[in-house]
Each structure stands twice: as C-alpha cells, then as structure tokens.
C-alpha cells in the first residue's frame, strides 16, 4: 500500500506539463523492459492489422474479420485468470519470458503460412488465438512486475510512459502495416513482427528474478483454481478496483469500432489499407499526445472522477466518428475504391480528429485505472488482479469487435459507433453514480 506522504510526493513534485520520465531514470530494468516492449508491441500491431486486412481480402466480410475476436475471447479470459495466478506463484520474469516465446513462435507461424501461400481462413483463427493467449499471460505478468521495479509514487508516471508506448505501438504499427501490405505483401509484413519481437524478449531476459512474496503467515501464494477463486473473491471487497474494470468494459464493449476500419477504407471513405491504417494510427496518436502532456495530469488527486470524465469524452468522440460515416453514407458520397488517391479527404480528416480525441481520452482513463490497480492491491495479489485487468482490456475490445462487426453486418457501417458512443456516455455516468467511493477515490489515500 502507498502512504499519503509518498503519494503526495509523486503528485506535487512534478511541475511541468511534459511527461515525467523519472521511472526510466530510477530503474534501468524498467527502462529496458519499456523500450523492448515498445518495439515488440509495434510489431504485434503490424501483425494484428495485417491479419484483419488479410482475412478481409480473402473473404470480403467484416463479420469474418470479427471472428478473430470471437474465437479468441474464451481462451483470452481463461489465460488471463490462470496466467495471473501463475504470475503470483512463480518467478514473474520466467513466466513472462516463456509466454512471450510462445507468442513469438505463433508470429513465426503466421509468416510461414503467408510465405507458403496458405489461404485457409481457419489457420489464421487458430494461430491468432494462440498468440492472444500467450500475449495475455505475458502482458499481465509484465504489469505485475512494474511495482517491483519502481517506488509506488512513480507508478502514475510509469503508466503515462506505458501510454506513450501503447500509442507508438498502435500508431506506427497499423500505419506501417498498411504501407507494407500495399507495397510488399503479407508475408514480409508478418516477418517484420518476427524481427521486432526479439527486442521484447531481450527486455525480459535482462530483468532480475521477480520471486513471489509470501503471505502474512509466511506461506507461498495459492495455486491452481484456488488461486483464481481467491483473486476473484478479492474483487468483492475492492469496489474501486472493481469499478475501474466495469467502466472500461462499458467503453470497450460499446465504443470499439476498429473492426469496421477495413470496410471503411474499402467502401465508405475509400483508400483501402492505407486509410484503415491511418484510422488506427489516429487513435494511437491521441494517446501519445495525451501522455506527452501528462506531467501534471499524473498528479491528479481525484482519480475516479478523472476516469469517469475521460470515458465520457471517449464516448462522445466515438459517436462523432459514427456521425462522420453517417454523413458520407446517407449523403450518397461513399467511395468504393482501394486507391488512396480516391479517398474522401474531408471525411478522412474528420474521422481522424474524432479518433485522435477518443485515443487521448482512453489513454487518460488508462493511466488512472492502472495507477489505482497497482497502488491499492497488495503484491501477493497483483498478478491475479493484473490478469483480470488484462482480460478486461483485451476481452472488452474483442467483445466490442464482435458486437460492432455483427451489428454492421445486420445494419450499416455507421450504426455501431453512433449507438455505441451514446451508450458509453449514459452507462458510465449511471455506473459511477452508483459507487460513490469510486467517484471520490483519493490518490492520497488509495483504497481498493
């Protein structure tokens, strides 16, 4: 737990609006982990974007693209819950390294089938599901490692740096994927991820051992199903941590239209893979900008209110993106062309602005949700809580892709973001109003 004086130091010492890089100076292992994970994450986003474009090229169906999320959802949930328990039981460095090697091997498999010219769609579903499972375990474990590498008062700053990392991943990755797919094809695109992944493995390899802490009786953490149940039981007595999960599930389930981007680039705004990549990059660019200007943001005291307000802005921005698509389609100005030169530039700029605002708001919410989780949860439970958190932040978007893809198939492309954005705003306001302790969460007195 963090005492008030320690949190106050982190909240007030920084005066600049620019991002605080103190965590990188305070811990060389954290700096190597952050840099390696950033490069590997860029490659992972290259592959995620390429898989969506590849499946759309093979099937011409947004629903078939959304099946990537459908097939992986159950395994991701199970791996998050059990992976977090494993991270609490064993050396976290070893757990993260083994899971990352499995994820790397699945990327090698994608590259191999692309070079072989395999066009069987189920092969992509199987490999991406394996990749998602391994990545979920690795991500949960890495986040549980961070509080062991840094003093607690630097955790919000570390979360802001993670926001920059995530922003770089989903800015450079999709943009690079769009260009690579258009210029050199899918096989070379997947191969780029294979090479970039090595940086992430290096960052994990150079970490010190992160052995589990013993409980109050000197016993090691529980294992197996008992450990999972113990972690879930902790949520019943942790309303603030629980609500941080709930509001993110709302935002990602109803306001995650990324699965629509290939179709938007193909038959709405036009521009094909390059437009799809730019839309994804815009979301990430907003996250980067919000992190770069996070110097004072990370010192905010009332973090529950900050999360609520950020998600409201997110919902409004997603609604705005949907309205841009509605104007284009209802007005009869949709462009059916994969040539970027034929894209509707006005609509593209408006869509990019909306998604950049959404990305910035989502990142601010993420900074404080991660800070609450890491500051208010005891270390012996951090792996399991991070596992649940990872299930939320990976499962929520996948559920959102499933819903958006299915709804777009039943209606038209602009309906999911318009309806979803409105639902995000209304549901988050109602949810936070029902839990006053979350609304009044005080960073100077963190309580789970």
UniProtKB/TrEMBL annotation:
One annotated Gene Ontology cellular component of this protein: plasma membrane
Superkingdom: Bacteria
Domain Major facilitator superfamily (MFS) profile stretches: 192-448
GO function term, MF aspect, one: transmembrane transporter activity
Record's bilayer topology term: Multi-pass membrane protein
Subcellular location, principal: membrane
Keywords carried by this UniProt record: Cell membrane, Membrane, Transmembrane, Transmembrane helix, Transport
Compartment(s) of residence: Cell inner membrane
PROSITE patterns: MFS
Transmembrane region(s): 33-56, 62-83, 95-116, 122-140, 160-181, 187-207, 245-270, 276-299, 311-335, 347-368, 388-408, 414-433
Protein name according to UniProt: Major facilitator superfamily MFS_1
Organism (species): Intrasporangium calvum (strain ATCC 23552 / DSM 43043 / JCM 3097 / NBRC 12989 / NCIMB 10167 / NRRL B-3866 / 7 KIP)
Lineage of source species: Bacteria, Bacillati, Actinomycetota, Actinomycetes, Micrococcales
């Amino acid at each position: 737990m963090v005492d008030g004086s320690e949190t106050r130091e982190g909240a007030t010492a920084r005066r600049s609006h620019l991002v605080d890089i103190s965590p990188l100076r305070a811990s060389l292992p954290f700096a190597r982990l952050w840099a390696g994970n950033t490069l590997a994450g860029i490659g992972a986003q290259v592959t995620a974007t390429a898989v969506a474009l590849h499946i759309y090229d093979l099937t011409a169906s947004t629903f078939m693209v959304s099946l990537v999320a459908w097939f992986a959802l159950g395994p991701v949930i199970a791996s998050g819950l059990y992976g977090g328990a494993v991270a609490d039981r064993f050396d976290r460095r070893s757990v993260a390294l083994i899971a990352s090697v499995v994820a790397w091997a699945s990327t090698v498999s994608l590259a191999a089938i692309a070079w072989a010219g395999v066009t069987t769609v189920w092969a992509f579903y199987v490999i991406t599901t394996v990749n998602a499972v391994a990545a979920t375990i690795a991500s949960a474990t890495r986040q549980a490692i961070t509080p062991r590498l840094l003093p607690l008062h630097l955790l919000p700053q570390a979360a802001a740096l993670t926001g920059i990392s995530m922003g770089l991943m989903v800015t450079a990755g999709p943009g690079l994927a769009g260009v690579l797919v258009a210029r050199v094809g899918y096989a070379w695109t997947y191969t780029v991820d294979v090479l970039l992944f090595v940086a992430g493995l290096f960052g994990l390899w150079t970490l010190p051992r992160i052995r589990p802490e013993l409980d109050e009786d000197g016993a090691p953490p529980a294992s197996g199903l008992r450990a999972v149940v113990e972690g879930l039981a902790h949520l019943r007595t942790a309303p603030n941590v629980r609500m941080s999960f709930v509001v993110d599930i709302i935002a990602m389930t109803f306001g995650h239209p990324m699965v629509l981007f290939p179709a938007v680039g193909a038959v709405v705004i036009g521009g094909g893979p390059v437009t799809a990549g730019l839309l994804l990059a815009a979301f990430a660019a907003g996250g980067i900008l919000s992190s770069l200007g996070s110097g004072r943001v990370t010192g905010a005291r009332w973090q529950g209110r900050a999360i609520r307000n950020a998600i409201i802005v997110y919902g409004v921005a997603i609604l705005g993106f949907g309205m841009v698509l509605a104007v284009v389609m209802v007005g009869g100005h949709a462009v059916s062309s994969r040539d970027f030169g034929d894209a509707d530039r006005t609509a593209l700029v408006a869509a990019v602005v909306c998604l950049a605002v959404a990305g910035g708001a989502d990142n601010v919410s993420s900074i404080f949700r991660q800070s609450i989780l890491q500051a208010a949860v005891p270390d012996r439970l951090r792996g399991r809580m991070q596992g649940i958190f990872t299930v939320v932040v990976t499962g929520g978007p996948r559920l959102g892709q499933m819903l958006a893809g299915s709804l777009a198939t039943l209606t038209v492309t602009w309906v999911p973001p318009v309806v979803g954005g409105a639902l995000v705003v209304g549901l988050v306001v109602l949810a936070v109003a029902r839990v006053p302790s979350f609304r009044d969460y005080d960073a100077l007195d963190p309580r789970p």
